[in-house]
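Need tokens for this chain, all 274 residues.
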Amino acid sequence: MQVPAQFEYERATSIAHAVQLLGKYNGAGRLIAGGHSLIPMMKLRLARPEVLIDINEVAELGGISLLDDDEVAQLFPILRDAEKVIADPIVRNRGTVGGSVCQADPSEDLSAAFSALRAYAVVQGPETQRIVPLRDFFVGPYETVVGPGELLVELRVPVRTGGSSAFLKVSRRAGDWAVGAVGAAVWLDGDVITEVGIGLSALGARNFVAVEAEDFLRGRSVSADVLGEAGRIAAEHCDPPVDQRGPADYKRHLAATLVTRALQLACRRAGREV
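Here are the structure tokens for all 274 residues:
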């Protein structure tokens, strides 16, 4: 089956209007912007919304273009790294950051990148707005804390000095879903790691992050052995799926290698050679 079930269509003109429409349809509506995740699911009838609420004309949701913004590239090189390896230019030009994060696909790249940066999600409801750490945003595969009458309106990334970041991905072919991908962000005081974020995609990490490896690194001096051990710890605590992209043992090995290399690159970008 490659034809969606019948649905109604509404076009929102503001965030308030989108929230109003979500309430009007009482959980039966789905928001659509880029549609690269939702429409294929509708074609397969894995998703059967009664109404699509188009938010493309909501100017308040427009934000930074990750690939084109030089300030973003300087402050958060991890985001430009990730954007360059997501799908292809057509998908990147049409897809949206918020839609990608809200899909909560376990193989989704930007969720790992923003989780590494310890970003916050701003969720708007009919009466209140709440700010949720992105690490608490994901409930499970394809599930988030966004309720039926709410929408994600903003992602906020704290600006910290003394650090940098990187994103690395391995896929079977250009534009494909990741076999494994890792984002790393480090903040240094001299050669001591004061704070760190490690995000993993497609590698079975809970909420996209390697908390145990982060805890190991915090307060330690940068060295090849320390970063290698962080990779080993991250691999030990992830639970990668066995699928057409490879067995679990291979993916754990990949996790260890990518975590180590992403940390090394982030440290070099922060001015500390390893």
